[in-house]
Design a protein that fits this description.
The chain folds into 2 domains: 30 residues; 32 residues. The relative contact order is 0.05. The protein is mostly helical. The protein starts with 9 loop residues before the first helix and ends with a helix. The protein has 4 helices and no strands.
Length: 87
């Protein structure tokens, strides 16, 4: 087993919840993954709030997605012979 030293700024150290000077690579990878998921969740929440999706139920969101898919397929197949020829 090898040991390495890695410099990490104080903010990252705090955000990753590291305590002490030693951490296994597996634990570090897990903490980085959790931090990444947390940031993605925050970005998704911001997008949901921006477009009003945070006020919709899960069922309403799925219904809207299904309606959009149906409308897309209708538009794709209506009179657009070039799209059919390319498929």
């Amino acid at each position: 087993m090898k040991t390495i030293n890695v410099d990490i700024d104080d903010q990252d150290y705090k955000e990753l919840g590291i305590s002490g000077e030693h951490i296994s690579i597996e634990e570090l990878k897990q903490r980085i993954l959790i931090q990444s998921v947390r940031r993605q969740r925050e970005m998704l929440q911001a997008v949901n709030e921006k477009y009003g999706l945070d006020t919709l139920s899960e069922e309403e969101i799925f219904d809207a997605m299904n309606e959009s898919e149906i409308e897309y397929k209708k538009n794709k197949n209506s009179g657009n012979s070039d799209a059919k020829a390319g498929d």
